[in-house]
Please model this.
Amino acid sequence: MTTQILTSCGKTRPACLALVFAILITTGISVHATVLHDAVRIGDKKQVHSLLKTLPTNLINKTAEGGCTALHLAVAYGYEDITKLLLNSNADVNAQTEHGSTPLHWAAHKKHEEIAEILIKNNADINAQSEQGFTALHWAANSDSIDLTKLLIKRGANVNSQAKNGIMPLHCAVQKNSVGAVKLLLAAGANATAKTEQGKDPLSFTHNEDIRAMLTKATKTEANNTTTMEANHSVEETPVFAAHNFDNGSRYEGLWLKEKMHGEGTLILPSGERYTGNWLNGKQHGQGTYSFSNGEKYEGSWAKGKISGIGTYTFANGNQITGTWKGSSLITGTGSHTFDDGDTYTGQWKHDRMWGQGAYVSSENIRLQGTWKANSYRGNTDSMQIP
Model:
């Protein structure tokens, strides 16, 4: 268990606020960034290559109207070579537009399988969600792209990822009457009975006989599996209270089932760190509190041994960040964090980074307030000395 959840918070933030202000007032920067976007837009590989030799990374990732980067444009137009050039020049493969779409979203929407493969090989977040909660797999299914759907599933896309309206990739594939995509999704474990926020299951989206037959069969299989699980659960042993000392010096007191922590209990590590809360098959699962040896603490939801769901992380100095977590990483939230050099940021967070509206105060009492994205200040505010 890591003792720092937000270890990445300060790694890419501005090293010098004076430099930030210089960037904001240097008109040449926006000009060069516009030239790069234009060169990408027309597919001028030679000019793009020339510009990338001189432009710093922050300009390579500068956004145009709508929040799209040069990489977004290269992907949208299907320029494989330019996409590779940009990625080799440290273009942000997971950059998001104003609506939260990444280059991989655009590749899926435009059915650019080869480019999607390039992005994934360069560490694109395959399950990144847009502002409305859609993933690249949603777009691939919605675009009736069998090859892309197969690629994304093979690379680990979550087939049951839900958008804010409850729509899953399977709903998209069914609505498009994409027999191939539906078959792939069901084979990968897509939930055939999942309902949208309006209460609609996949069957209600189509009259295609082949798709309805596949969904009906999958629904019956799910029902049989549920019945079997319930039968097994009915004869399952009841957890009992126990105290257990592990070989590594840790001690557990709480409910115990089949030689595993299962139910309410407390685990104390040799370092003094402790977890008190719910367990499932030996892993933190449900509501619980983890106290770190450095005085920091997390209170909230857990899933399969990792921080996942709604929770609050409290730092040793009392600063807190509350939000939604997944896999022990902050997805979205609000709160304050003081960095090692004394600088403090208070505001909105996304993907463990300063993202949204917030105020950054340096140890020299310089304040920078306004819109942030991926630890980069986007302006719309004034800087001032704090009295």
In short: The longest helix spans residues 209-234. The domain at 240-311 is CATH 3.30.1120 (Arylsulfatase, C-terminal domain). The two ends are 41 Å apart (CA to CA).
